[in-house]
Design goal:
With about 280 residues, this protein is of the alpha/beta class. Helix content is about 30%, strand content about 25%. Bound molecules: hypoxanthine (HPA).
Length: about 280
């Protein structure tokens, strides 16, 4: 799946948003499943429905409101995506990442990405937070890569490195802020699968063997595109459920469980993000 966007199209969307706001966002924020209420912490907000923005896709899934929220968080101007686009909805990787490039053109130098994920690491529990240190982009590795197609040199290199896709500086900062606020944070590798089905138990065991600690249906495309464009990326997973690893289990993963645990995590994640955003301007 592939869509081609020109620089002019990114700039049209950027110009439209700029015409609605008076301050330049320096941090982009993507809110995952069940985490949309986090945008309520943004003050003096301007809200722009995706449907109004030229070339923006429109989100369809429950738990994703579908608007940009631009305003103040911890004294920093942020641009939050309340609702993101998923591959399983039928969007191409280029559509999924369109807003990331627009945020970069708007002036965002960092991107904070959140998601809901299933815990693969046997020590993880529902309700944990995980700092993403690295990812396995199964969708990208399978050919649905967001940088597939002609390279736009205005954003970055044809063959970008992904060694430090998740900024070492922001990872260190996040752990320091979490320790200060006494919010426990796990660390690990996030595996992106296409979805929309949750994993089979065999797939869960395979992902564990591959080195993944958490699994979800988002994030990797946005992170690749942000890092390609030189943005500093911070990624945090809400472990909303523990992935089921045996066919003999009576347990099951459901979307409502994901949304419910996500909602429980919101206050803690909000405190953590407010703390980290406040320190990112230093
Ligand atoms: N698997 C995939 N995606 C998810 C999960 C899961 O267990 N939980 C939340 N998003």
């Amino acid at each position: 799946m592939y869509t081609s966007f020109s620089l002019a199209q990114y700039d049209e969307a950027t110009a439209f948003i700029r015409s609605k706001i008076s301050q330049t966002p320096t941090i982009g924020l993507i809110l995952g499943s069940g985490l949309s209420p986090l945008a309520d912490a943004i003050e003096d907000a301007v809200r722009i429905p995706y449907a109004h923005i030229p070339h923006f896709p429109v989100s369809t899934v429950e738990g994703h409101a579908g608007q940009l929220v631009i305003g103040q968080l911890a004294g920093v101007t942020v641009c939050a995506m309340q609702g993101r686009f998923h591959f399983y909805e039928g969007y191409t990787p280029q559509q999924i990442t369109f807003p990331v490039r627009v945020m970069q053109r708007l002036g965002a130098v960092s991107l904070i990405v959140t998601n809901a994920a299933g815990g693969l690491n046997p020590s993880f529990r529902a309700g944990n937070l995980m700092l993403i240190e690295d990812h396995l982009n199964f969708v990208g590795m399978g050919g649905n890569h967001p940088l597939y197609g002609p390279n736009l040199d205005a954003f970055g290199l044809r063959f970008p490195s992904m060694t430090r896709a998740y900024s070492p500086r922001l990872r260190t900062l996040l752990l320091a802020v979490a320790a200060e606020l006494q919010i426990p944070v796990r660390r690990g590798v996030y595996a992106m699968i296409s979805g929309p089905s949750f994993e089979t138990p065999a797939e869960v065991r395979f992902l564990r063997l591959a080195g993944a600690d958490a699994v979800g249906m988002s994030t990797a495309p946005e992170v690749v595109v942000a890092h390609h464009a030189g943005m500093d990326v911070l990624g945090i997973s809400s472990i909303t459920n523990v992935a089921v690893d045996t066919v003999d289990s009576a347990a099951d993963t459901t979307h409502s469980e994901v949304l419910e645990t996500g909602a429980e995590i919101v206050p803690r994640l909000t405190r953590l993000l407010v703390g980290v955003v406040g320190k990112m301007k230093d």
